[in-house]
Amino acid sequence: MVIESNSAKDTFSFGESLGKQAEKGMVIELIGDLGVGKTVFTQGFAKGLGIEEPINSPTFTIVQVYEEGRLPFYHFDVYRIGDIEEMEEIGYEDCFYGEGVSLVEWANLIEEIMPEKRTIITIEKDLEMGFDYRRITLEERN
After folding, report:
1. Are 66 and 53 in contact (CB under 8 A)?
2. I want to staple 45 with a disulfide (CB 3.0 to 4.6 A). Which of 15, 91, 108, 114 is the partner?
3. Model-level pTM?
4. Cβ(18)–Cβ(93) under 8 Å?
5. Structure confidence at residue 58 (pLDDT)
6. Eight-class DSSP state of 114
7. What are phi and psi of 130, to 5 degrees?
8. What's the confidence (pLDDT) of residue 76?
């Protein structure tokens, strides 16, 4: 599925709609260059889960846990991960295979531990279509 976003508001709204549909055990791989709107998408997703607190990218903490929504939400940013063992130290398996929803930014860096069943969301810019234009591709892996 491909969604075209013409603004941050569109990207947020798409994230929110997916958050409303999220089910326990869902793992989302979020792919996109710096500045494409991954955090905006994630903020919308969290709102769809019923989370009202501010959502920021956990670049230096690797994972941020939000428990106030209808499902626990585990927001990972593995951009600065040095070794896959750091994920084991965090207890990623409890998040990926537990009762909540996990969203992993830069998941390509930990591909070997990502579950086979996951949703892959890729956000891309296309400046020929406009500065705020984003192409959001959603792919289900089973």
Report:
1. yes
2. 15
3. 0.91
4. no
5. 75
6. S
7. 130, 155
8. 95
How far is it, in rounded angstroms, from Cα 41 to Cα 50?
Answer: 14
Helices (H), the chain: 8-21, 38-48, 85-90, 92-96
Q: Which two tokens stand for residue 28?
A: 């989302």
Residue 48, token pair as written in the block? 């769809």
Expressed as residue numbers, the domain containing 49 is 2-141
Task: Give average pLDDT by consecutive 10-residue segment, the chain, 142 residues.
Answer: 93 96 96 90 96 85 92 94 88 94 93 94 90 93 88
Amino acid identity for residue 21 in this structure: Q
CATH number, position 100: 3.40.50.300
Residue appearing with tokens 């947020």 = 12
Rounded Cα distance, 119 and 29, in Å: 6
